């Protein structure tokens, strides 16, 4: 059997997803501050963060975190978090939002029907 090509929608640009110039410059500013004042606590796990990746528990440099998640209307990068903590928090929020949408759809109160 010959595999068929699957059409995949192009992924939105970094700027369109909220990780453009403003996010990168804010993250760079926060990382520079962390380099001067190491050991600030991660807002998710309360363990210290460092600008040097090898000193962090996950071996990666901290990520810029939107204090208010983008999915809930947040727009600004306001703090740093361990990369693994930030990724995990985003995945948990996405899972909760998807679960809630499924529950509303099952009750008939979700998205509007396309059948008129």
Radius of gyration from the alpha-carbon trace, in angstroms: 19 Å
SSE order in H/E notation?
HEEH
The rough form would be described as elongated
Spans of 5+ residues with little confidence (pLDDT < 50)? none
- Portion of residues in beta strands equals 5-15%
* Tally of individual helices: 2
The percent range for helix content is 25-40%
* Class by alpha and beta content: mainly alpha
Region (Disordered): 53-116
Biased composition (Basic and acidic residues): 55-66
Organism: Pseudonocardia autotrophica
Biased composition (Polar residues): 73-88
If you had to describe this structure to a student in words, what would you say it looks like?
Helix content is 34%, strand content 8%. It is mainly α and 116 residues long. The protein has one domain (21-106).
Notable traits:
single chain; 116 residues; mainly alpha; HNH endonuclease
Tell me the layout of helices and strands.
Layout lengths: L20 H16 L26 E4 L10 E5 L1 H24 L10
Antiparallel strand pairs: 1-2
Summarize the structure.
The chain is mainly alpha-helical and 116 residues long.
